[in-house]
Amino acid sequence: MRAGTFDEVEFFRALEASGVRALLIGRRAMVVLGLPVLTADYDFWISAGDAAAFNAAAKPFDLHPTKSPDEARRSGRYVLENDEHIDVLVARAVAARSGEVVAFDEVWQGRQQILLADDVYVNIPTLDDLIRTKRFALRSKDLEDIRMLEILKTRGRR
Question: Which of 85, 104, 111, 155 has the fewest CB atoms within 10 Å, i.e. the most exposed one?
Answer without folding.
Answer: 155
